[in-house]
Amino acid sequence: MDDEAKHDVSSETDHYQYMRRALELAQEAYESQEVPVGCVFVHNNEIIGFGRNKTNEALNGTRHAEFEAIDVILSSGKYTSDVFKECSLYVTVEPCVMCAYALRQLGIKQVYYGCANERFGGTGSVFNIHEDTNLSLHSQYPSIGGYYREEAIMLLRKFYVRENDNAPKPKRKHQRVLKTTIKPPK
Amino acid sequence: MSNLPFRQILSDEETRDLETVDVYVADIEPKETENVLKFIKKNLPSLFLNLNHVKRVRKIYNDEKDKGKGFTLTILFCLTTVISLADLQALLASNEFDKLIPRLRVVKVSKYPPITRAQFDAWKQLWPLNFREPKKAIELAQLAKSKGEIPIGCVVVDPRTNTILAECHDTRASTRHPLCHSVLNCINAVANSEISSRQPKNANEEPMCSMALVHSRIGRVFYAKENPNSGGLGSTYKIHTHSSLNHHFQVFVWDNIVDARIETLNQIDT
Predict the structure, then answer these.
(1) Which chain A residues are closer than 8 Å to B209 by Cβ?
(2) Dmax over Cα atoms in chain A, in whole Å?
(3) Which residue from B144, B230, B238 is spatially nearest to B186, judged by alpha carbons?
(4) Contacting residues for A139 by C-beta, under 8 A, at least 6 apart
(5) What number of CA atoms fall less than 13 Å from residue B122's CA on the CB side?
């Protein structure tokens, strides 16, 4: 089997199926008072690791869904870090700069995300960490968004309309209403 | 920093002279140590507050050059301000430590933890103290290299107290985890100690760790060596100043300073 054929064993239906699992994890994060982002790593059509945002619980701003899942995979004892070269990541929100470069160091094969992250997205929205040729040490990877984009956005809106006692300066938000109209992607 | 044409303005904590507090102590036999420590733990738990820098037991050899000639052990009970001598004597008597009562005496110990080596050397003469000399980031990098790790080190400092919160080197080789960079190791160490992280620190950054520092709301970053291949704080990106990000911080690089120790560390790819 050549490389191209290997790349495309997952069908469009599979992409949505994996992203649904990532969304369930994002929902779990929401219910745990965390920023609702979830992800799964898929290797040969099998989910080998999953995670959701845990920054508040861990008191650690770097415990994003991707880092949680990466640590699950590497601490399982079943895989070396080489496995990521054959993995696709499905994450509900575009990876941030930190995660984007972490994924590049791991040599991730492909990233699929739900909605863009216009504040600090690292794979196209604000930075192009995934394909910047100046970052010459690690291979580039493709990153495609739009899978269950609206669901991912609505989860984030639900989170941010809710009062967050973990914020540095908690804001009272009782007058805010949840918007349900979503603009098309840029 | 001593190569710079500046004199550092040190904090009051770093320049202050010895100040002392009075504590109760008693000489004890080695075989008594365990029981006396149990007595202290049970009866004087909160009385040792604010003296974590002071060692509980002092051991003085009768002859430093010939340690076979025996030694004297002295144990520290608590500050004199928290219990009167009469009350401490009564407490000892009621716990069958009557024989310690005539040995009780008051000595002076350093009131504050030593911050500098000079303070430590001077103040420990009174009574032994705990002192953890900060390992500089470069020394951590050298240590990493000696262990076969990628030679990068990082130190996180709380500038308000000038204390070190975490000091880690890169551990990618030993952990076989490609993301165990010194900066992330430090962030995790600080988070695990449940201290909010808003401190300056030292290291060489790339985009992952640069953004990890944004997420951690770092105050200032000092680094020793630029990283032309992937540096996120000046070389490739300036993540610390990016307008769309929700936190910004200051970054300093050692300029015009040739530190031989850095040159011995290989070109680093992070």
Answers:
(1) 98
(2) 58
(3) B144
(4) A104, A107
(5) 14
User: Which pLDDT tens digit goes with each residue over B24-69?
Assistant: 999 999 999 999 999 988 888 655 556 778 899 999 988 888 888 8
The whole-angstrom separation of Cα B115 and Cα B243 is 38
Q: Return d(Cα A165, Cα A170) in angstroms, integer.
A: 5
Query: Any catalytic annotation for residue A150?
Result: no
Query: Which structure tokens are listed for B78?
Result: 């608590």
Residues B240, B231 contacting (CB under 8 angstroms): no
Antiparallel, parallel or unpaired: β B20-28 and A87-93: unpaired
Asked if B171 and B185 touch (Cβ cutoff 8 Å), the reply is: yes
Cβ-based contacts of B214 with chain A (< 8 Å): 97-98, 120
pTM over 0.95: no
Separation CA B269–CA A10 (nearest Å): 34
3-state SS assignment for residue B206: coil
CB contact under 8 A, B211 and A101: yes
Alpha-carbon span A185 to A160, nearest angstrom: 20
d(CA A161, CA A150): 16
Which amino acid is present at A153?
Answer: I
CA angle A96, A100, A102 (to 5 degrees): 120
